[in-house]
Write a sequence for this structure.
């Protein structure tokens, strides 16, 4: 069933995405809204997908061990392949309508929309008692990440952010080498990515022409909570990542993957300060390249850590210990400890002690962490949903929320063009009150959370 793209206010159903929804969901008995269904070990999860024309379609292929029962996308032509793959799934354009109508038929929701719609969809689904898998980055703003983690905890649902490598062997090996003391106490981490470069445009201003919107695209729904603006192919599909109103730039696309080993293995938590060096900053988009330095206080036996993020073709200095003729890959992370260095591939890839001869000299450390049996991030979430165990999804919002918050402090430094002194408990930049407008963004009517 197709929902209509409403250009003015919202219908009775539309209020579900608004501020009134928060109160309504807290007082309506869970069985009325569908709630969290208790599953037997051999039962299949009933999954709905929101944003299924791109990455979401690929995610669903790894979830089709279970039942794909409902699909939502604002562009049915772009989502056509996914619709054909699951012909029995009910179809919608407005996720608010889908969640309302299918409340009793779905157990879990995949969300793979642009960043700016992650929180409105996820919070609504969680308050209805639905397990949630949200593509990376988890949220568009720091406040959203904080709220999503809180709602996940309050409702007891199983959550997961789509930083795929978190389920892999590489992350666990990295943790074990570091905690075995292979490179000594770590004081620096250097993380980089080749994005955006040729992936999507940045460092540009808003286009002034207004080409017609494709008939298949419900533009008002695509905008969702973002401020109104005319359709333009400079935004959709995919190119939205570089625009402040819709995306979080290369940080949101790749730091959630490549910086994951630093946050997980060093238990970094929130930064205390952050500064950025960038290409020219425009009013509408992230710069062409960034070098962002995060400062983390000492914690327990771990010393203070400086983590540098590089994108847009920038990289750290090539380590002298790297083999002759070898260069740093397009994505990766380099740990620098008091006793040595360790290089890991992108997406939490396998670790290599430097120089590489140390891999033969240093005994492989004992396993300290449980392994994901198939290394499949989506299946890990599904198994956790069936078990009703939020902790069994290792990239759940309890971890991914603070991780996302920390990364997005870097975007504050970029956009405000100044060093940020960060108060995580107060969720504010103590030296930059103008950051509040970026931490707590304004939502269009009908989309508030």
């Amino acid at each position: 069933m197709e929902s209509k793209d409403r250009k003015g206010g919202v219908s009775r159903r539309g209020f579900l995405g608004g501020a009134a929804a928060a109160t309504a969901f807290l007082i309506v008995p869970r069985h009325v809204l569908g709630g969290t269904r208790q599953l037997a070990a051999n039962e299949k999860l009933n999954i709905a997908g929101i944003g299924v024309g791109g990455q979401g379609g690929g995610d669903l292929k790894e979830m089709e061990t279970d039942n794909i029962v409902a699909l939502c996308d604002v562009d049915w032509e772009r989502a056509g392949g996914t619709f054909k793959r699951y012909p029995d799934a009910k179809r919608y354009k407005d996720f608010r309508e889908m969640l309302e109508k299918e409340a009793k038929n779905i157990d879990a929701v995949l969300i793979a929309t642009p960043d700016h719609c992650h929180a409105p969809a996820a919070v609504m689904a969680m308050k209805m008692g639905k397990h949630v898998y949200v593509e990376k980055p988890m949220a568009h703003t720091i406040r959203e990440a904080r709220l999503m983690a809180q709602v996940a905890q309050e409702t007891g649902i199983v959550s997961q952010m789509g930083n795929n490598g978190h389920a892999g062997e590489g992350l666990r090996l990295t943790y074990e080498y570091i905690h075995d003391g292979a490179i000594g106490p770590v004081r620096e981490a250097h993380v980089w990515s080749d994005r955006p470069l040729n992936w999507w445009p940045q460092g540009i201003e808003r286009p002034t022409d207004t080409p017609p919107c494709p008939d298949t695209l419900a533009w008002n729904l695509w905008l969702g909570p973002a401020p109104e603006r005319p359709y333009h192919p400079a935004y959709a599909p995919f190119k939205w990542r570089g625009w402040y109103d819709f995306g979080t730039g290369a940080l949101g696309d790749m730091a959630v993957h490549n910086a994951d080993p630093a946050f997980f293995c060093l238990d970094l938590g929130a930064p205390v300060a952050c500064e950025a060096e960038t290409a020219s900053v425009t009013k509408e988009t992230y710069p062409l390249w960034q070098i962002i330095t995060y400062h983390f206080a000492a914690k327990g036996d771990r010393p203070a850590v400086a983590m540098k993020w590089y994108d847009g073709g920038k990289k750290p200095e090539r380590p002298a210990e790297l083999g002759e003729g070898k260069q740093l890959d397009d994505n990766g992370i380099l740990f620098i400890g008091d006793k040595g260095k360790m290089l890991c591939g992108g997406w939490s890839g396998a670790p290599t002690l430097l120089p590489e001869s140390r891999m033969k000299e240093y005994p492989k450390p004992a396993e300290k962490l449980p392994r994901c049996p198939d290394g499949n991030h989506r299946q890990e979430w599904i198994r956790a949903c069936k078990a009703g165990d939020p902790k069994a999804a290792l990239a759940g919002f309890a971890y991914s929320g603070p991780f996302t918050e920390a990364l997005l402090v870097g975007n504050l430094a970029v956009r405000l063009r100044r060093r940020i002194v960060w108060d995580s408990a107060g969720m504010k930049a103590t030296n930059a009150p103008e950051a509040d407008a970026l931490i707590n963004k304004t939502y269009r009517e009908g989309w508030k959370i």
Residues 1-33 have pLDDT under 50 and may be disordered. The chain has two domains: 13-165+380-398, 167-205+250-369+406-431. The CA atoms of residues 203 and 288 lie 5 Å apart. The two ends are 25 Å apart (CA to CA).
